[in-house]
Amino acid sequence: MTAVLQFARFDLRTMALTQPLRVLLPLLFTVVFCVTLPVPGFGIAIGAVVATVSASIPFQGDERGRLDTLYGIAPIGRTAVVLGRYCSMTVFALTAIGVGTATTLVMRVVRHQDFGWPLVGTMLLASLACVGVAYAVQLPWFFALGFTRGRPMIYIPVGIIAVAGTIVGRSGWFATPRSIDVLVPPLWLVALVFAAVLVLLVSAGIAMRVYRRREL
What we know:
mainly alpha; single chain; 216 residues; 9 helices
């Protein structure tokens, strides 16, 4: 477990030092979109999208710095590399969603918007579920193929999230005449988050398997 945490810390530090613009600009865009578009909870959703499209960042760094070769000969083992990267990407996702949530709450006060914690909780659960499923699909793919060959996978989860958002928007769920403050996160959404966690664990097992077979 120590090796996993050490690699996760190394992974986050490497992303921050070698690709600062690719890490910081998406977080900045999350703030900008939230500030410019007065849609309740929109910043939280943008944070989830940012986390989803950022799944390729560490893999691009691996190829540019030839770090895969280093991982292949390092004593930490490929299992620690996979689990460590799942941990580092989870930290990044929580950071992106956290930035979106914080900006949403600040703009709520600035704009005097009439929504409360039930909406925030619902958006947080939906965002976590979406990111969990997106990572579960993307990370094994990148571990198997690397950044260059696996790059098209970046856009597929984003498309799915966009379609899901369109469906929810047209469903009229937010157009209900009752106060949005009486809404509570539905139980099925809580269950979906737990399901996303389970899918992510299965995904990690698949990623370890394909990464062990990959020639570095």
